[in-house]
Each structure stands twice: as structure tokens, then as C-alpha cells.
Write a structure and sequence with these properties.
By secondary structure, the protein is of the alpha/beta class. Helix content is 37%, strand content 21%.
């Protein structure tokens, strides 16, 4: 039976917990709660939990590396679980999308996202499923790095919370039906 691995991107450490760049971590935490999976296995490059959902083996993972080295965690997961790129679902922040918007895709370029660039290098392909969560572009006068490492505003926070719920629904749809169904329903 094939294992489906969901990996949420972010930066480790409490300093980054509530930043825009850590939306992927927050999605994995929500999936773990909803799916009853304990994130209790700590490896050099990743924290993970294993369980079952919709009669499938699933792994939830958060890299212990910084964003720019996310490919190291993916390489470990690929070797350990014998997965193909199509068995992976990467969940991450996207500044090109409005806050709270989702985009489910079967592949694509890194679009300037260093975590995705690292994963593409590790896998040797751009063709792997992903769920992008909109964090909005930086406002005028704010650079990309301070923007992604900043917190959501009080107005944005409830929109993001709602988006995380949609990510969980999209992940369920992907498992129960297909990535095509998730794309049709959540894009």
C-alpha cells in the first residue's frame, strides 16, 4: 500500500511560530489534531507522525531545517517511506495569492519560493502535488523577507484560520477522491 506524505513547510523554533512563512506547519498541526495523529517522532531533518485516514497510510511531517533546506526533509521521507514525488503533498505559503486563497496543483515551478526550490532540487522534478496558501503580497515599502517572517494582522488572522480549515478539507478530498477533485473543489 502506498503511503501519502503531507509535509508542511516552515521554519523551526518558537520565534517563527506565528509567521506567514509557517502556514504549512500550522496546516500540519491542524491535520494532526483532526486526524488523531501524534507528531511524536523526531529525526535529524523532520518531525513526523504516522497514522491512517480513509483507509490509507499517511505521514504528516514538518521539516526541522530552515525553509531554504526543506529538500533535506523530503529526501529523508522519500528514502524512509519509499515514496514517489506523486505520493507527496507539500503545503506552503504563497505571497502571490491573496490572504486565505488556496491553490491545489499537481506540479509547477518554484515561483521564487526557496523551500520549493530546495524540494525540486532534492526530487529532481517539479511534478509533485502541492497546496499553496495565500499570505498576500508585501505591502508597499516592505521587503519580501520581513513580510513572510511577519505575523498576520488581526484582520487577516480569522481569514487564515478559515483557510487552514479549507486546507484540511482539500487534504481529505485528495485522499478520498483525487488531486483533480481537490483542484476542482478548492481552487
Amino acid at each position: 500500500m502506498t503511503v501519502r506524505v503531507f509535509i508542511g513547510l516552515g521554519n523551526p523554533g518558537p520565534r517563527y511560530n506565528n509567521t506567514r512563512h509557517n502556514v504549512g506547519f500550522r496546516c500540519i498541526d491542524l491535520l494532526a489534531r483532526q486526524w488523531g495523529i501524534t507528531m511524536n517522532e523526531r529525526r535529524a531533518t523532520v518531525v513526523l507522525g504516522q497514522g491512517h485516514r480513509h483507509d490509507q497510510d499517511v505521514v504528516l511531517a514538518k521539516p526541522r531545517t530552515f525553509m531554504n533546506h526543506s529538500g533535506e526533509a523530503v529526501s529523508y521521507l522519500r528514502a524512509r517511506f519509499g515514496i514517489q514525488p506523486a505520493d507527496l503533498v507539500v503545503i506552503y505559503d504563497e505571497a502571490a495569492l491573496p490572504v486565505g486563497k488556496l491553490r491545489v496543483r499537481t506540479g509547477g515551478s518554484d515561483a521564487g519560493h526557496n523551500g520549493i526550490k530546495s524540494i525540486i532540487a532534492a526530487l529532481g522534478t517539479q511534478e509533485f502535488p502541492r497546496i499553496r496558501v495565500g499570505i498576500g503580497p508585501p505591502p508597499g515599502g516592505v521587503g519580501q523577507v520581513p513580510h513572510v517572517l511577519g505575523a498576520f494582522s488581526t484582520e487577516e488572522a480569522p481569514v487564515v484560520d478559515q483557510a487552514l480549515e479549507l486546507v484540511a478539507q482539500a487534504a481529505d478530498c485528495l485522499l478520498q477522491e483525487s488531486i483533480q477533485a481537490a483542484m476542482n473543489r478548492f481552487n
